[in-house]
Amino acid sequence: MITVENLTKRYGSTTAVQDVSFTVQPGSITGFLGPNGAGKSTTLRMLTGLTPPTSGTATIAGKRYADLPNPGRVVGVMLDAAAQHPGRTGRETLLLNASLLGVPKTRADEMLEAVGLGHAAKRRVGQYSLGMRQRLGIAAALLGDPAVLILDEPANGMDPEGIRWMRGLLQDFAVRGGTVILSSHLLGEVQATVDRLVVIGGGRIVANGSLDELLAGTGTLVRGLDPIGLNEALTAAGLNLEPQHDGSLRVDATAEQVGRAAAAAGQILIELRQSDGAGLEDLFFQLTTTPVAAAA
Amino acid sequence: MTTVTEDVPTVAPAKHRAEVATALPPARGQSFLKLVAIELRKSVNTRSGRVLIAAILLIALAALTWQITHLAQGPAGVDGFLGAASTGVMLLLPVIGVMAMTSEWTQRTALTTFTLSPRRVRVQLAKFVSAVVLSAVVMTGVVVLALASTALAGAVTDHTTSYAGLGGQLAGAYLTVALNVVMGAAFGALIPQTAVAILAYFIAPTAWSLAGPALFKDNANWLDVFGALGRIAERDLHGMGAETLTAVGVWIVLPTIVGLWASSRREVK
């Protein structure tokens, strides 16, 4: 379990992270979402003891990161897949870590196979593609059989097949009681993988909750044979709506309410469903752009 | 440069926390000895690390070859061979110290290293020890080459060979190597860019040894670290014990302390 309490980081007069608090429970995958420069990486670096916070605390399984006797056996961390020595082979990279973590050499080979790098084990990391380095980073994070995973932009540079593979891996890890936090600015990637979301914008937490909670209330999407007539009917029924550029309407109401109002006015519906699609994207931009604009 | 296609096979996602995981030995802390062993391994398991060591040995070999083919009149002493072999080596060995400290930052592996071992001062001290051990090993290689050259000179030329004063000379050489490497490592800890740290290591004390005497006359000796190291190598302080200690303190001990402090607080990007 990860607990972050009132973390703040200032660089001179610039505040990179302000009063950030959240928890990540075992058995769940939390997406740490925000645009570039929002403070995601700074928060994760404070969580892993690489950057001293200006104020606030972060603990993993109740301990500050620096107080973990052998952190790799408790937390698997991948903050930057590029931070591997290009002159070492993938296998040598893992063997070094295995020695430090006190796990047998065979574990390194198992992890290379598990992330699909068995064929490239003896190649130097400098020849790896970014996607392969991400896999190596994930293998390194899993090496000590940790209960917690902290991954910064793990999908970066991965092909769609790789992203799908990682999604399965992380969901499996969480099902076995693992705690996962992964950051991303790729909305679609996060939406399909995580259970919970912590959204950061301008250094502050702007949303924190389960994916369902955060996506709820985005309303119903409806399309009628006669868009203008449908618009008038729904407005007359007292429903709030917002026309979309493709001619459909997004209504702040349940599908039943929309259906009844349309039926009462004799409007023919050709599409009626919960508004998803760009739901998270809308939320994302709405949540992350407002505080920045307000602060400017 | 070769491009590697990402022809990775799809893998069943259930393997990473398999039953084998429970068979892992219990988690234990990281002993200082283990940290030193890992740092030693890191400094020889990359091509750049191996090239540096090979270059040092090759330079010694070249110097020894020249020495054998240009023997002066009289007996061929081991001191002459050792001196010839060490000159270039003494210049390059401190680079091992510098690189032990800087390569993590230039290659960005500091991120991984300090995530796995968050108590950074221990890791940095392990790097100091590992750099000293590695350079002592390399120096031993050079000594062996020098001894072999002396024997060779005795066998193939008509010079008589002498091994007089070998013990004292070796003691001085190893001590100087250790101090030089610690000084290099201290500069590396202080300045995390390899090239800048190496330049600072060579230029700052040299600049002082050139400018100091002009400005401060004999008082410049108090901060002349190369002079101090030379006296240590000769195992004769020429009555300048206090000056020697001061120079070592200012150029080696002080940068070590400040370097450890700075690198333990430096933000890892």
UniProtKB/TrEMBL annotation, chain A:
Annotated InterPro entries: AAA+_ATPase, ABC_transporter-like_ATP-bd, ABC_transporter-like_CS, P-loop_NTPase
PROSITE patterns found in the cross-reference section: ABC_TRANSPORTER_1, ABC_TRANSPORTER_2
Domain ABC transporter span(s) in chain numbering: 2-227
Keywords: ATP-binding, Nucleotide-binding, Transport
Origin superkingdom: Bacteria
Entry's Gene Ontology molecular function annotations: ATP binding; ATP hydrolysis activity
Record has Transport as a keyword: yes
Pfam families: ABC_tran
Entry annotated with the keyword Cell cycle: no
Family of this protein: Belongs to the ABC transporter superfamily.
Entries under PANTHER family matching the protein: ABC TRANSPORTER, ATP-BINDING PROTEIN (PTHR43335:SF4)
Protein name: ABC-2 type transport system ATP-binding protein
Organism of derivation: Kribbella kalugense
High-level lineage: Bacteria, Bacillati, Actinomycetota, Actinomycetes, Propionibacteriales
TrEMBL record, chain B:
Transmembrane spans: 51-69, 81-101, 128-151, 171-191, 198-216, 244-263
Keywords: Membrane, Transmembrane, Transmembrane helix
Stretches of the chain forming a coiled coil according to its record: none
Superkingdom assignment: Bacteria
Protein name, per record: ABC-type transport system involved in multi-copper enzyme maturation permease subunit
